[in-house]
Design brief:
Layout lengths: L4 H14 L5 H8 L3 H7 L3 H23 L1 H7 L2 H21 L13 H23 L9 H21 L4 H16 L15
Helix pairs in contact: 1-2, 2-3, 4-6, 4-7, 5-6, 5-7, 6-8, 6-9, 7-8, 8-9
């Protein structure tokens, strides 16, 4: 039986990845504990979601650190930046697989401490992508924030593909990395054209 708070959080994340709207009663049942036990650890669903958010953001920060994003950006070296870029995308895919629920849960967007931490981590990514642009690794005709958002969108796509079984797990890393780089890698590109009537 799952009894420690750490194990409860891990089990809750795993179930919420499959059933994002699960109630506390449903989560307790899926975890294999009583609702009373779940409430002893987390007084409300919001408290549980907050704990899940903290855990997912901790992992997000760890992945940035493990990929060496900051050091690579500071070096300005294209090879180091490229290596860090490939590594962080791979780590983010593992995170999206394990913490997919956190990518789009709207409750987390209403928790100020989680929002503040998320904004800090996004800025770290933007700094890294900006360095990648300066080093000629990523396109410099796109806003760095847009590059960050494009990867975020691909992670959501990867999560949903795995959830619905439309893409095999063994293909996800290659698909996300090649799609991300094909759209953002530095190379000669024609200027963007606007649809007729839009200037």
């Amino acid at each position: 039986m799952v009894t420690s708070e750490e194990k409860i959080v891990a089990a809750a994340i795993k179930h919420l990845n499959q059933e994002p709207t699960a109630s506390m009663a449903r989560l307790a049942e899926a975890i294999g504990i009583s609702r009373a036990t779940l409430h002893r650890h987390f007084a409300s669903r919001e408290a549980l979601i907050h704990a899940l958010g903290v855990r997912s953001i901790d992992r997000w920060e760890e992945s940035q650190d493990n990929a060496g994003m900051a050091a690579a950006a500071e070096s300005g070296d294209a090879e180091r930046i490229t290596a860090a870029l490939h590594q962080v995308v791979g780590l983010y895919l593992v995170d999206a697989d394990e913490f997919g629920f956190a990518l789009t849960d709207h409750f987390m967007a209403e928790m100020p401490d989680l929002v503040a931490r998320s904004e800090e981590l996004v800025e770290r990514e933007v700094t890294f992508y900006t360095a990648a642009q300066r080093a000629g690794v990523l396109r410099d005709d796109l806003p760095a924030h847009w590059i960050a958002e494009s990867l975020y969108g691909l992670l959501i796509g990867a999560r949903d593909s795995l959830r619905w079984g439309t893409v095999a797990r063994r293909h996800i890393d290659r698909l996300v990395l090649t799609t991300f780089l094909d759209g953002n890698a530095a190379r000669p590109t024609p200027p963007l054209s606007h649809p007729r009537g839009i200037t």
